[in-house]
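Support case: adenosine monophosphate complex. Customer-provided input:
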Amino acid sequence: MIDTCSHESRPLLSIEDALDRIKVAVNTVVGTEKLSLNNALGRVLAESVYSPINIPYDRNAAMDGYAFASCDRVDGQVFTLGLAGTSWAGRPFEGALQPGQCVRIFTGAVVPKEADSVIMQEQVQVRQQTIHFPIDTRALQNIREIGEDVKQGACLIAQPKKLTAVDLGLLASPGIDRVTVKRQLKIAYFSTGDELTALGQPLEPGKIYDSNRMMLGGLLADPCYSVVDLGVIPDNKQLLEDSFIKASKNVDVIITTGGASVGEADYVKEILQSCGEVNFWKIAIKPGKPLAFGKIGMCYFFGLPGNPVAVVVTFQQIVAPALRQLSGAPPSKPLRFTATCTTALKKAPGRQEYQRGILSQNDCGEFIVVSAGRQGSNILSSMSQSGCYIVLPKECNGVQAGDRVIVEPFSLLI
Ligand code: AMP
Ligand code: MG
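Agent response - structure generated as follows:
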């Protein structure tokens, strides 16, 4: 990897180019493990799963009612059939249905093989053991056919897929209880900065509490990741370098916050350059311009900015897609759509901005968005009150109240 944007004179890398570079540089982890289904939520399926049986396995009723053979139906007339017994869900009717007979049946119960139709219980009249069918009784209704959901041998879920709750249900329906998934991605993260104070400690003059590490822990809460919190490292070159090198031997990815800029105490990019490779370290986005991406040995490295809002934006826009690719999950683009912005927004051309907004729908169902308030990259309170990014393209020169803007609702973790 070459450092192509270390000089201020070069144009900043666009976010699209940064994402393309990551896509090329990143390789999915090798290795799988077998898990029982109840531990597989959120993991990436590594082997496609085929159904060992038909689903449904038996022909069964889609309604509570009466099962009958359509040849016993009298077209255009009311007719009656004798009640031969009951088919319960889990307890099928055991006899054979004779001509002129029907059975009481409940949703999910096996339909006797002589029957091909089920009528809803509300449509018949029951007089002791005789069932009166109405004139408009329809044949071949309300039966779930064998294999109508999934045929035996068909692909239930193709790899790769991040397994959802619905997927677990789908896998369980033909009785699958183990799946092969990609191994977890090992991620270490830490904060850098002399000013950082651990929670629970008194705050000395000039110090601040470490909010980034709390957020990163939350943003990394994903079953595909096995995360290690390596705490705070002061702005000391040797300590930082030793920590980077040590962590790089044990994990697939290192994520740091702070020290990524060009201040006197911002060593991250310099150290990455000396003990590894820098792919890029500045992107044309706001917030989040200083972001170092590279590698130390086999370990990928993301040096995020220090300001908390910039941490979230760069994590979500840049690190998260990279982690997905590394963990083998298929790419997923965030949902974006347009909304009318009812407040004016300040913006200078040059960088793509991710302003924080509050999204709602008016009485006509149209999407409207307002600024969430102060937009500084240290203003976490307005981000906490917001629900979406207002994505303003690089060349945008501000927004007037009433303009249409692109919005991107936050993921659930934000
Ligand atoms: P830096 O990139 O180290 O120059 O940091 C930029 C700003 O982010 C400074 O105001 C830092 O104090 C702040 N900052 C850095 N790390 C953290 C952290 N872990 N939690 C909260 N704020 C931080
Ligand atoms: Mg710092």
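Residues 1-7 have pLDDT under 50 and may be disordered.

Case will auto-close in a few days if no follow-up is received.
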